[in-house]
Design a protein that fits this description.
- The chain has a domain at 525-637: ANL, C-terminal domain (GMP Synthetase, Chain A, domain 3, 2-Layer Sandwich), CATH 3.30.300.30.
- Helix content is 33%, strand content 22%.
- The chain is built from 20 helices and 29 strands.
- The strands form five sheets. Strands 2-1-11-10-12-13-14-15-16 form a nine-stranded mixed sheet, with helices on both faces. Strands 7-6-5-3-4-8-9-19 form an eight-stranded mixed sheet, sandwiched between helices.
- Helix 3 runs parallel beside helix 13 (317-328) and helix 4 packs across helix 5 (112-124).
- The protein is globular.
- It starts with a helix and ends in an 8-residue tail after the last strand.
Length: 645
């Protein structure tokens, strides 16, 4: 008689043969990645609840004393604590005048109040509009007008107060700006003076500024500018402190709460870069519930009772994955509120202090962790990399370093705001180096000819546009039907697919390999050159510390590649560039050869999600001899470049 193990192996082999005999060769039908997800979870239906009810129902299954949210290690919140906080915010928002369907704007740091207010608005049937903390007043005003926001919550910081205050003098429907101290959730904050409010009131109510006052010059000029922007009326009636907000609005009141509403918009996030008109992505309850469902039931390792560290800003859809989504999975999420340029080098220190099992990070943060002095990373079970592509050579290098220190290897993932930020991730096993992983258990991904509904077979190394379908897909871009039509397309299969503008291939197992954004592709001598591929070739040599390839307009060839490089310490630039040139000539097609190499001390990164800011490099006029020194193929800035990470 056969043993149990032998029978099990036979069953697996028979199931494999049956699957293979029914394959069509098209991912949208075969879904080859499903063999890596747990069979027990494949048929669990996605809830039709609103996100708040789904959050509370899912977290009910964990022990009552489970800490879901931790603020700086000083204040912990269980499910019951979160429910009480949300209840208080529902009362305050209701008394403020917020009703179902209203859109409330936020420009805040990573504090618990953002999460509580989002959940409160969701239960009320209202919508949260998330604005990046460093947006210009003009763009803030555009986003407020796009959403017809009457109420605007901001963190109590100089830059936010200054920019938000300027919006008061612009044309919009804004009625109140409420500023929240960063340490509001810590009990001792009740006894701290609101120093920023005191500064503003001091300036606004002073007719003449005494220039002999012992003030820091920059601070003095900032406050002087603020005095010119603000009026007595604005301060008295439109900008209020959080203590005043609680005093006036935290009172018993009848509240109107909603159930269901799967297709109701509940969140707006923005995409479209730092210039031009931003597009507001409308995410519904269905989008966010499906996102959390996918996180919980896909084979990515997001399991109770792990701990996670979150340093992301609450202005991107990815933020909900890293906070509420992980809490639904039973993780304790620790929030770090400050994470601008001065704080980024501290990231390894935060990892060492809080010892998370799980991190959502990107290439720049993984680099800092790998190159840090943190020796013991045995607690790090799920180092997730997303937001920007991690090139293969760096993935291998970081993996070697992290695993030597006891951590598990990196899990690359991928997503866009239009699909609630997460669509793929490498499963716990097997992980494939260079791949952005397999689709979530409830998401469909296929490779199509660019901007068409002609699907390409998988497993054939055929490159096309990565397209995503399923319940996480956005409703559309707010008040922008043309942009919606160009991105969210109904195919001949009757499904709506998000066309990402990202190019890639899918292997026979359903693993996806990101080849680059269409914006990072140029045509040279009739050949398509992916700049991300050139980056990987350069980094693979080990000759430079980092690089970023961008396109340059050329009078003879129309478009040519140029590479911004940061040299390894102590290296000679002429020797390094000579070796790079020789390597590319010998190992790549001729059209890969860069026209110029620009030597930099640092490369720029975007502030919020720490992606390489190739757009700012494209704008540099590297052939301007007033700004750059040109020596053959080697170009150097005349002035040192400020560190921007």
């Amino acid at each position: 008689m056969k043993g149990n193990e032998s029978m099990k192996e036979e069953k697996i082999e028979l199931e494999k043969e049956e699957r293979e005999s029914n394959l069509t060769g098209y991912a949208s039908i075969d879904r080859p990645w499903m063999k890596y997800h747990n069979d027990d979870y494949k048929n669990i239906p996605i809830s039709n609840d609103n996100f708040y009810d789904y959050f509370m129902n899912q977290t009910y299954m964990y022990p009552k004393d489970t800490v879901l949210l931790d603020y700086l290690g000083k204040r912990q919140f269980t499910r019951s604590d979160i429910e009480k906080e949300v209840s208080k915010h529902i009362k305050m928002l209701t008394n403020l005048g917020v009703k179902a369907g209203d859109i409330v704007s936020f420009m805040m740091l990573n504090t618990p109040e953002v999460i509580f207010m989002f959940l409160a608005l969701n239960k009320m049937g209202a919508i949260a509009n998330l604005i990046k903390y460093d947006e210009s007043p003009d763009r803030i005003n555009y986003m407020l007008n796009l959403t017809n926001s009457r109420y605007f919550f901001i963190s109590e910081s100089d830059v936010m107060i200054s920019n938000a205050s300027k919006v008061l003098n612009m044309d919009n429907s804004l009625e109140k700006i409420i500023k929240i101290p960063v340490m509001e959730s810590l009990e001792e904050s009740k006894f701290k003076k609101e120093e920023i409010e005191k500064k503003i009131l001091d300036i606004v109510y002073t007719t003449l500024l005494d220039e002999d006052l012992e003030r820091d010059n920059k601070e003095f000029l900032k406050l002087k500018e603020l005095q010119q922007e603000l009026s007595y009326e604005n301060i008295n009636n439109k900008i209020i402190s959080y203590s005043v907000y609680k005093e006036n609005y935290l009172k018993p009141t009848p509240v109107h709460l909603l159930r269901g509403g799967s297709d109701r918009t509940t969140l707006i996030v923005y995409t479209g870069g730092s210039t031009g008109k931003a597009k507001g992505v409308e995410l519904t309850n269905k989008s966010l519930v499906a996102m959390a469902h996918g996180e919980k039931y896909s084979n990515y390792g997001y399991t109770y009772p792990k701990k996670s560290l979150n340093v992301l800003y609450p202005s991107i859809a990815y933020y909900l994955n890293a906070t509420c989504g992980l809490m639904i999975c039973g993780l304790t999420v620790t929030l770090i509120p400050y994470f601008d340029a001065p704080d980024i080098p501290k990231y390894p220190m935060y990892v060492e202090e809080y010892k998370p099992h799980f991190i959502f990070s990107g290439p720049i943060l993984l680099q800092l962790l790998a190159m840090s002095n943190v020796k013991d990373l045995s607690y790090l079970l799920n180092p997730i990399s997303g937001g920007d592509k991690l090139d293969v050579s760096n993935e291998i290098m970081y993996n070697n370093i992290l695993t030597e220190r006891g951590a598990k290897s990196i899990q690359q993932g991928y997503g866009t705001s239009e699909v609630a930020a997460i669509a793929t991730c490498n499963p716990m096993e097997p992980k494939k180096v260079g791949s952005i992983g397999i689709p979530m258990i409830n998401v469909d991904i296929a490779i199509f000819e660019y901007q068409t509904d002609k699907e390409l077979p998988y497993g054939k190394d055929l490159e096309g546009e990565i397209c995503i379908s399923g319940p996480t897909v956005m409703k559309g871009y707010l008040n922008n039907p043309l942009a919606t039509k160009n991105t969210l397309m109904k195919h001949s299969d009757g499904k709506y697919w998000v066309h990402t503008d990202d190019m890639g291939v899918m292997d026979s197992d359903g693993y996806i390999y990101h080849r680059g954004r269409l914006k990072r592709m140029l045509t040279r001598s009739g050949n398509k050159l992916w700049l991300t591929d050139l980056d990987e070739k350069v980094m693979g040599t080990g000759l430079v510390a980092s690089c970023c390839s961008v396109k340059l307009d050329d009078i003879n060839e129309r478009e040519v590649p140029v590479v911004h490089v940061v040299l390894n310490e102590g290296e000679d630039e002429f020797e390094v560039i000579s070796k790079l040139d020789s390597y590319i000539k010998e190992n790549c097609p001729p059209f890969y050869l860069p026209k110029y190499y620009i030597i930099k001390e640092y490369l720029p990164y975007t502030k919020v999600n720490k992606k390489l800011d190739f757009k700012s490099l494209e704008k540099e006029n590297i052939l301007d001899e007033d700004e750059f020194i040109i020596n053959g193929k080697i170009i150097k800035p005349r002035n040192k470049i400020k560190k921007l990470i």
